[in-house]
Design a protein that fits this description.
This protein is mostly beta strands. The chain has helices at residues 107-110, 142-147, and strands at 4-11, 24-30, 38-47, 65-79, 83-96, 99-102, 164-167, 172-185.
Length: 195
């Protein structure tokens, strides 16, 4: 943002040079250099030490978060009163863990008792309802029995539709970079630099 000198929003009927798009066009011009060397630097920090936990998170702590946005601008003369340069850099480093709410099977459901769903469970072979919505243990697929112990236990029993809350301790990393530059003749000299 420190590099933006002006912007214009062109909408409706606009010149042919901006044609080929519907809606509107945003035209952004970056600053130019000056006769003296000027610049600025910035840093924005956000992390889990400064945040509160997610309202769905029952772990009692905020998930891992490290967000750094940083950058700077520098402008000056290449040849006094003739040619100027201006460079800008904006970087983002984001390492963030997410909190997720899910609905997972309860231990009773894993053993075949689906009565908590409040629905009629029909036998796929005969089409008749299972008594009490309980699937007999002999009818549960052996593969399903083998993977059942790997399901985590529900940790949010107060909300049956979101009975499991996972706070990932492993952070996902996302980095971004934006660099801009301008070198050339400026039709007007800025003797005092830019704001």
């Amino acid at each position: 943002m420190d590099a933006v000198e002006e912007f214009t929003l062109i909408k409706g009927i606009y010149p042919a040079e901006f044609g080929g798009v519907s809606g509107s066009t945003v035209n952004v011009a970056i600053k130019s250099g000056t006769n003296t060397l000027h610049g600025a630097a910035f840093e924005f920090l956000r992390n889990d030490k400064l945040d509160t936990r997610n309202m769905f998170d029952t772990t009692g702590r905020a998930p891992n978060l490290r967000r750094n946005q940083f950058g700077g601008v520098l402008g000056g003369p290449v040849r006094k009163n003739k040619t100027f340069f201006f460079v800008s850099y904006d970087g983002t480093r984001l390492r963030q863990a997410n909190v997720s709410t899910n609905r997972i099977p309860t231990p009773a459901q894993l053993s075949g008792d689906l009565s908590s769903l409040g629905k009629t469970i029909n036998d796929p072979l005969s089409g008749t309802p299972f008594p009490g919505a309980v699937i007999p243990a002999v009818r549960i697929n052996p593969l399903s029995k083998a993977i059942a112990p790997f399901w985590p236990a529900p940790n949010n029993p107060a909300d049956p539709s979101r009975n499991y809350i996972s706070g990932f301790s492993e952070a996902v990393t996302n980095n971004g970079h934006v660099a801009e530059y301008r070198v050339g003749r400026d039709p007007h000299v800025h003797p005092g630099g830019f704001e």
